[in-house]
Structures are given as C-alpha cells and as structure tokens.
C-alpha cells in the first residue's frame, strides 16, 4: 500500500493543523470508539465507493489529548484513496510509525484510531457490534479484545505496556491481575505461532504492580526500649480504621418540576440502565432507575456499590455506558 513517509515533525503538523476535521454528511461507514466519560473518544466517518471499494473521503471528530487528535487526523490521510482491503491491513503500530513515533504513555491514541477504522469498516460491511465483549478495565471501558489486538500488534510483554497502549489499569489498578492473565494467554499463543520467543513471554507475577499498588502504608511504631522508640510516658493513640469514601446523596427535585421527556425516551433510558446492571451484579452490587429530569438520570446504588471507595469510578463507568447507548449527553446522579 502506498503511504506517506513518516517524518519527525508530522505529529506537530497534525495536531496544530489537523486535516479532515468535522462531519461527513454523505458518510456510508462510521466508526466510533471511546467515550467522553473515559476522557478519550474518536468518531471516524468514511465515504466508500461501493463499485471500486475505495475510500473517497474521510472526516473525524475527536475528544482527548494532542496525541489523539494527531493520530485521528493522520488516519484520514493514510486511508483516503486507499482500497478497503488495503486499509484493513493498517495496524495501530503503522499509525504510530506514520506519526514518527508516539510517547510510550500516548500509544493508546494509535490503538483507539485503529479501533475506529475497524469499526467503520465493520459498519460498511453491515456487521453488528458484539452485544457484550468481556470488559477488562471498567475505569476506561477497555475490552479484552482491544487489549489482545494491542498485545499482538505491538508485541507487548509487560502489563505496564498494556496500560500505555490501551489505558487499561491506569485508574484504580483493580484489573491488574486480569491484565496479567490476558497478557500471559496471548503471549503463549504468540509463542505457539512463532511470533514471539518463549523467553519473552510474560509470566504472571514476574512484574510488580504499578506504584499506586505499592505506595507506603506507614510502619508500626518501634517496640518500647528500642533505639528511637517512643518514650514510655507517651501513650500512642490507636490508628483509626480507614473510612470508606461515601458518595454524596442528592435529593430529587419535586416530581412536578421534573422533565422526564417523552415516554419513548424514558423507556430507552430505562432499557439502557437495565443493560448495565449485570456488570454491577457480578461484583455483588446493583442499581435501579429512580427517575429522569432532563439530562440527569437519578440512580439508586445497592449491595456492594453502596459507600464503596470506588463508587465514583463505578458511576463514571455507568454514565459513560449510558451516554454511549443513548447517543446524547446524560449525567448520572446518585440518590439515597
């Protein structure tokens, strides 16, 4: 496939003066990936000639950092004029190389751009997205499939590389062991296929978790009589038990002043809420729709979700999923 040659300053060019920005009204292939709730999102719109199966035009909209904007803009230049078959062969590694390289912590921008291409081509072929892909990271909505493709494309052999390329594990770190499991499984398959040497394959437990998992917790005071010990006439107060960060509870506005929208809109929101409940129930939690007021969705958390230290993360994840399903800005508000 004939492509433009990468240059060292191309990253800056695409960020400062991004090409092909905006809506493509005549698009017949659209791929959207990410979500505003996760901090990064790309919508790629293509016009493909059905006769020649060549991409005649491409536009994009993105929300995120400078690297994400540059990667999305670069993708449009890489694919305009190319055949669908040629574009299918573009990898996230190709996108990063085209830009002249990306910082390690911004490699996920190339991965998101690649996923946007694949979703647009799948939409063109009339393929439906999988109803539910196993989620690897709830904080950033990263599926196991996305992580696996990144591992294969970039020859990843370290959990922290997976975080850099997908953002999985970059939040609460609760999915670290799951990342290890996926990485070890994919690396083993790569070794069997001859794509990776056995000595390079990841072994669970061989790399320590991130710094947030290993931050100092504080040491117990030295025993009395030891050098530097607390004098015997001073009584040490017991260390208080950690208190879970409770989510603020907000009272609903009066029923007569709430804007619930049309019955169809309310039913759509109710259906979207029902679709996210199984994820919470797997962790012993749950939620129920209390009411709707304009763009505010009032939810009541229950089970393990009540006063959980990660309740704010859970609500952000629910909000991101609902925005994706409803395709309009909504705000999730917890109520008691």
From TrEMBL:
Query: What is the species of this protein?
Result: Rhodopseudomonas faecalis
Q: Which residues form the BFD-like [2Fe-2S]-binding domain?
A: 136-184
| Identification of the protein by name | Nitrogen fixation protein NifU
What cofactors are annotated for this protein? Fe cation; [2Fe-2S] cluster
Q: Which residues form the NIF system FeS cluster assembly NifU C-terminal domain?
A: 269-333
> Which residue range or ranges hold the NIF system FeS cluster assembly NifU N-terminal domain?
13-128
The record's comment on cofactor binding reads: Binds 1 Fe cation per subunit. Binds 1 [2Fe-2S] cluster per subunit.
Q: Among the record's GO biological process terms, what is one?
A: iron-sulfur cluster assembly
The lineage, from the top, is: Bacteria, Pseudomonadati, Pseudomonadota, Alphaproteobacteria, Hyphomicrobiales
Sites where the protein binds [2Fe-2S] cluster: 137, 139, 172, 175
**Keywords from the UniProt entry:** 2Fe-2S, Iron, Iron-sulfur, Metal-binding, Nitrogen fixation
Q: Where is this region: Disordered?
A: 204-231
Decide whether keyword DNA-binding is in the record.
no
Q: Which Pfam families match?
A: Fer2_BFD, NifU, NifU_N
Its function? May be involved in the formation or repair of [Fe-S] clusters present in iron-sulfur proteins.
Q: Which family does it belong to?
A: Belongs to the NifU family.
The UniProt annotation places Fe cation binding at 65, 109
Gene Ontology molecular functions? 2 iron, 2 sulfur cluster binding; iron ion binding
Question: Does the record bear Iron in its keywords?
Answer: yes
């Amino acid at each position: 496939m004939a492509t433009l040659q990468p240059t060292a300053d191309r990253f800056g060019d695409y960020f400062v003066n991004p090409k092909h920005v905006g809506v493509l009204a005549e698009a017949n292939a659209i791929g959207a990936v990410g979500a505003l709730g996760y901090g990064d999102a790309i919508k790629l719109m293509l016009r493909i000639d059905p006769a020649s199966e060549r991409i005649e035009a491409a536009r994009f909209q993105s929300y995120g950092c400078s690297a994400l904007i540059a990667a999305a803009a670069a993708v449009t230049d890489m694919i305009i004029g190319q055949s669908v078959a040629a574009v299918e062969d573009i990898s996230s590694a190709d996108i990063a190389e085209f830009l002249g390289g990306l910082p390690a912590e911004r490699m996920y921008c190339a991965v998101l751009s690649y996923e946007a291409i694949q979703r647009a081509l799948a939409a063109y072929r009339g393929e439906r997205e999988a109803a539910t892909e196993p989620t690897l990271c709830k904080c950033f909505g990263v599926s196991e499939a996305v992580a696996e493709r990144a591992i294969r494309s970039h020859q990843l052999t370290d959990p922290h590389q997976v975080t850099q390329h997908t953002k999985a594990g970059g939040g609460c770190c609760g999915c670290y062991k799951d990342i290890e499991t996926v990485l070890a499984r994919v690396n083993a398959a790569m070794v069997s296929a001859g794509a990776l040497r056995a000595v390079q394959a990841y072994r669970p437990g061989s790399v320590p978790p991130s710094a947030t998992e290993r931050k100092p917790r504080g040491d117990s005071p030295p025993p009395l009589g030891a050098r530097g010990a607390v004098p015997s006439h001073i009584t040490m107060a017991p260390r208080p038990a950690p208190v879970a960060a409770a989510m603020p509870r907000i009272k609903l506005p009066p029923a007569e002043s709430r804007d619930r929208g049309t019955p169809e809109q309310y039913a759509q929101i109710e259906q979207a809420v029902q679709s996210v409940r199984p994820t919470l129930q797997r962790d012993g939690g749950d939620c129920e729709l209390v009411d709707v007021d304009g763009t505010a969705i009032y939810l009541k958390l229950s089970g393990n979700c009540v006063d959980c230290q990660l309740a704010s993360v859970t609500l952000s994840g629910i909000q991101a999923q609902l925005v994706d399903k409803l395709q309009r800005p909504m705000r999730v508000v917890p109520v008691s």
